[in-house]
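== Sequence entry ==
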Amino acid sequence: MLDTPQVEVREATTQKTTVFLSFTAQSAWIYAISPQQQQAIKKLIAGKTTEQATELLSRLPGIERVSLTTSGFADTSQIPKDISHIHLALFYGL
């Protein structure tokens, strides 16, 4: 969790010895990707076109948006086949 949760109690009622709360809560959380998961993602998109890679990445759980940038290669429409040339940058929106 990145920040202190914001909690707003909407309603509080009691019935005998039981308390019922209705509330909303909001906070920012980090979605962690392990090195093994990063390697699997790189293998998934290696050698694919940027269009194919974008589609594959957008289907992964927890992924809201995908943006690919290629540079330093003759064909920028293709993801490198060698995963050591693929670098992931993860951004968390609040």
